[in-house]
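Entry 12.
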Amino acid sequence: MEPAGEYDYIIVGGGTSGCVLANRLTCNPDIDVLLVEAGGRDDYLWIHIPVGYLHCIGNPRTDWLFRTEADPGLNGRALIYPRGKVLGGSSSINGMIYMRGQPADYARWAEVSGDDSWRWEGVLPLFKRSEDHYLGASEVHGAGGEWRVEKQRLSWKILDAFREAAHEVGIPKIADLNAGLGEGTAYFEVNQRRGIRLNTAKAFLKPAAKRPNLTIMTGCHVERLLFEDTPQGKACTGIRFTGAGRVYTAKAHRETLLAAGAVGSPQILQLSGIGAAEELQRHGIAPVVELPGVGGNLQDHLQLRMIFKVRGVPTLNTRATNWFGKTLIGLEYALFQSGPMSMAPSQLGGFARSAPELAAPNLQYHVQPLSLDKFGDPLHRFPAFTASVCNLQPTSRGQVRLASGDSYAAPKITPNYLSTEADRKTAAAALALTRRIVAAPALAKYRPEEFMPGPQYQSEEELAQAAGLVGTTIFHPVGTCRMGRKDDPLAVVDGRLRVHGIAKLRVVDASIMPFITSGNTNSPTIMIAEKAAQDILTAHISPAVL
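Predicted 3D structure (tokens):
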């Protein structure tokens, strides 16, 4: 093994949270940081063109190519499970939707962690710190930050009609999905700059890369964490990793920060001997610390994709299924950075209740002016739109477990979708609500006709069955190293994201969420990194504070 140097902090993973951490920590010129990323540079053209996610997901250049285990809740189907393997991580291949979640989400985090700084009033300034909102600074938005938030550069009559139909069944039109207002519909705001994707590598890492106190190593695979015994117990001293056919070790004097995501972080912990002892021993790994919660508590938003044929209104299906339409689309983007090539995967969003007695919205809509059988398939040749709806707070829990002791082997991802009666009931209610919206007067002139799952599913039991047929991940895995009090046997990190039982080690990514946020999870992950960086910098200057 070859030494790769000694640093104050080592960041494992150059994804969403890793890029933020690298930027914030190296603002202090006295702090030396190493950032290690398994993927390559974000210099692939399709990363930066918004519709390029179609070329990045399923591409080994940018995606880990994970798949789930066959899922009983999805009638035995296995799903692709995209995770970014490139600088910027999943922010380089995701849907670009800027979403924070609801205040009640963070109240739950505060309660389970015993740390009130996670409440909405504590995290809102962190969201605003990063933000550069196109309308400028306000009570709820920030300006001048690295994370640009813009309006989308197109609209569709069919989406406007769906929004009006939702209003007719009691879901109001609102101006801002991120103001903590709850129920309502609006066009999503996106992380783009003038029609070009903004990932965290461009926003946060590129400015930091110019600093002499940041070392970035790409194409490096972390095999395990390294530990030493101290009078106070176990402490993490750094990492062992491979790159360019060599094996390296790097030492962290202050802390190692695991930012490899909801799949990568629990995998690295388990490979390093942190997890359920019996499970580790089964793969020939000597336990270092017994933390049975590592890899558990996997949560994700399962989107239920309903497709409706329409008449007398343009959709992307009809615009993009011939060479002339495709040429016009390409020209529109080349000249103006607008039109379908600037589209996020979903354009219209909304929050709704599956039952009127609920205190807060528990459903999110992602509505698209297009349809296809499944991701990666060609668009249908008939005009149609897709109304995807997901349960924001699922009660089903899955897990990420090692398939073997080989660090290069993909882990076993078992989401356990629709494995609780509550989730099946919510799924049935969500499909029924979508039908109510589509049957409202505002859409009548387009004569919508349900294509998928089909009108033959009517009873609650039949609709729950249909949910298993049409449900698929919306790419929001979280929770596998969840935050919680020290006396919580399944908690992995404390309220400051320090791993229980191991000094000098934190997890800083979406895996620490005890409960999934009510919406898209990328920007909440940036907030988590902002908060961790703030805590780390405070402790670096005054160690006795934390």
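Annotation: The longest helix spans residues 522-541. The first strand starts at residue 2 and ends at 12.
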